[in-house]
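In response to reviewer comment 3 from the previous cycle, which asked for concrete evidence that the modeling workflow produces usable outputs, we include below a single protein chain processed end to end. The sequence was submitted unchanged, and the resulting structure tokens are shown without manual editing.
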Amino acid sequence: MPGKRARRHFSQLSEFERGLIIGMKTAGWSTHRVAGQVDRSECAVRNCWEQWTREGTHARKTGSGATSKTTRREDRRIVRQAFVDPTVNRSTIRADVGVAIVPQTISRHLAETNLKSKRRFRALPLTPEHRQLRLQWCQARSMWNVTDWQKVVFSDESLFVLGTDDNRVRVWGCPGEQYNSPTLFYVTLPAQ
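The workflow returned the following structure tokens.
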């Protein structure tokens, strides 16, 4: 419930809520009491009331908010680049669009089309030939005893990154799309 309440504070006031605020403030209610009644922040209530007393209207001004740095055509171009080449990074997209925008703008446009940046999915190439080789390897060692297995060293390779960049390629893709070929790269095993 607290998450919904916090989000509600930042959404726009509806015409009905603006009318309620004006009515309650006209009736002499305090800003704190009105904010609690309509479940909005005191700042939103105060701004609505000040607009009413200053301009005589409670209608939301058209065109309020930050102006867009990109056109709709440039927005479509950003999204198209991520679809065509999922491995393209934000700086390349920004250079190709040719508009001075911050990387968060590119991420926002791609998130609006349900594209998110994620690491490539690693997959072993389990072709029929690989399956056959694994089966042969297991069958050759099926009769081993404990002393034979004690001669084998098992290792767990972990990646430790001391810097900020791990040099792994990130791709743009929709959630649950990890098995598509552009976002998948294969790890080839050395031949014995």
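Residues 42-55 form the longest helix (14 residues). We consider this sufficient to address the reviewer's concern, and the full set will be provided in the supplementary archive.
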